[in-house]
Amino acid sequence: MSSTLDQLRRSIDTFSSASVLIVGDVMLDQFVVGRVNRISPEAPVPVVEYDHDDYRVGGASNVAHNVRALGGTVELVGLTGADGAGQRLRELLLECGIGTSGLVIDPTRRTTTKLRIVTTRNLQVARIDYESDHEASGEAQQSLAGQVDRLAQHANAILVSDYLKGAVTRELMVRVVAAGRARGIPVLVDPKIPHIHYYAGATLVTPNHHEAEIATHQRIRTAEDAVAAARLFRERAGCLDVLITRGEHGMCLLSGPEAVHYATAAREVADVTGAGDTVIATAALSLAAGVSLRDACGLANQAAGVVVAKFGPATLSQDELVSALERSNVP
Q1: Closest by Cα among 20, 115, 36 to 73
Q2: Which of 154, 198, 273, 300 is the most buried (most CB within 10 A)?
Q3: For 226, left (φ over 0), alpha (ψ -120 to 50), or beta?
Q4: Beta-bridge mates of residue 47
Q5: Under a CB-based contact definition with an 8 Å cutoff, are residues 242 and 207 in contact?
Q6: Other C-beta atoms lying within 10 Å of the C-beta of residue 302
C-alpha cells in the first residue's frame, strides 16, 4: 500500500538524516554558451559568438549533487586525472557540499569532461568528449576499493553510477556488494549493459527501456512487455529488484513476484539529460531514510518529472518534490 501525502512529507523531512555513498564515473560538464546569427562561409555550420562558460558536475557527480540538493549527506568515490578539469570538478563538488575524500587521482588518465557548445536559447550545436575509458587496474583499483570499504561504514545506502568510463570494474562491484551486505544496507545500480554481469547481488538496478531491450533482446511497447523484460533482466543481472524507466510511459518496478507501474509525472519536457541520475539519487536517498521501495520509486518518479523541465543536468529541492507530490493528487 502506498503512503499518504502527509506520510511522504514526513519521509522527505528525514532525508537530512540519511547518508548515501556514491561510487562511479565522475565527470565535468562544460557549456560554452554563445549566440548564433549566421552560417559559416567555410562550411554549412553555425557560427557561435562566444558569451560565457558554465561548469557543472556530471555523471556520478551529478547523482551526488541530486542527493545533496534533496538534503542528504553524500560521499563520492571515483577517478579523476591529475589535471585542471579534475581540480575544477573537486572545487565544484565541495561548493555543492559533497564529500570528495573518496576521489582517487589516476595520473594515467584524463578527467572525463563533456564540452557542449550551446546557444543562449539552450540549443546544442556540438559536443566534444575528453575521456580515458580503460578500466581501472592496479593501484587505482585498489585505492577505489579501499575508499569503498572506508566510506561504506557511515552510509545508509550505496549507489553505483556506471557510465563505462573505467571506475566500475567487476572487482570493485564485488567489494561494493560485500560492503552493502556487511552493513545491511541497499545497493542500487544505474547500469550500462556491457557490465550487466558485474551487478550480481545488487538490491535494485535501474535500466532505461532502451537498456532493458538490449539486455533482454525484447521489445518493450506495453506494460506487460516491461514486466516480462524486467523479469528477464533480473535473471541475467542476478539482482534482487529491477526498475525500468520508460520515459513518457513512466516506470515499471519489479520487486519479488509483483510489478508496480508508475505513470509519468512530467508535465513539461525541456531536456531529459540527467533524468536517470535524479531517479536513482532520489530512490537511494529515500531508501537510506527508511522509505519503502515502492514509495521510494514513486518519489523518484515525481522527482524526474520536475528535472526534465530544466535545461541540462539538473537537481531539485525538497520543496519542489513536495510540490510535485501535491500536484499529483496523492491522498
Answers
A1: 20
A2: 300
A3: alpha
A4: 38
A5: yes
A6: 25
Burial class (CB in 10 A: 0-12, 13-18, 19+), 128: exposed
Q: Identify the three-state secondary structure at position 272.
A: coil
* Identity of the residue numbered 35: R
Domains in the chain, please, with CATH? 5-27+58-111+133-327 (3.40.1190.20)
Helix segments in the chain, DSSP class H? 5-13, 60-69, 84-95, 138-151, 170-183, 209-216, 223-237, 275-288, 293-307, 318-327
Amino acid letter, residue 241: D
Alpha-carbon distances of 229 from 204, 223, 300, rounded to whole Å? 15, 10, 21
Q: Is 303 left (phi over 0), alpha (psi -120 to 50) or beta?
A: alpha
Measured between alpha carbons, how far apart are the two ends of the chain, in Å? 12
Rounded Cα distance between 248 and 264, Å, is 6
pLDDT digits (tens, 9 = 90+) for 134-149: 999 999 999 999 999 9
- What is the identity of the amino acid at 32? V
d(CA 126, CA 308): 20
- Residues 19, 73: contact at Cβ < 8 Å? yes
Residues 32 and 52: their CA atoms lie apart, in Å, by 6
Active-site positions?
277
Amino acid in position 195: H
Does the pTM surpass 0.85? The reply is: yes
66-108 pLDDT per residue, tens: 999 999 999 999 999 999 999 999 999 999 999 999 999 999 9
Q: What is the DSSP letter of 208?
A: B
Nearest of 125, 159, 195 to residue 22 by alpha carbon: 159
Q: Which residue, among 103, 105, 107, 111, has the nearest Cα to 29 in the 3D structure? A: 111
What is the three-class DSSP state of 1? coil
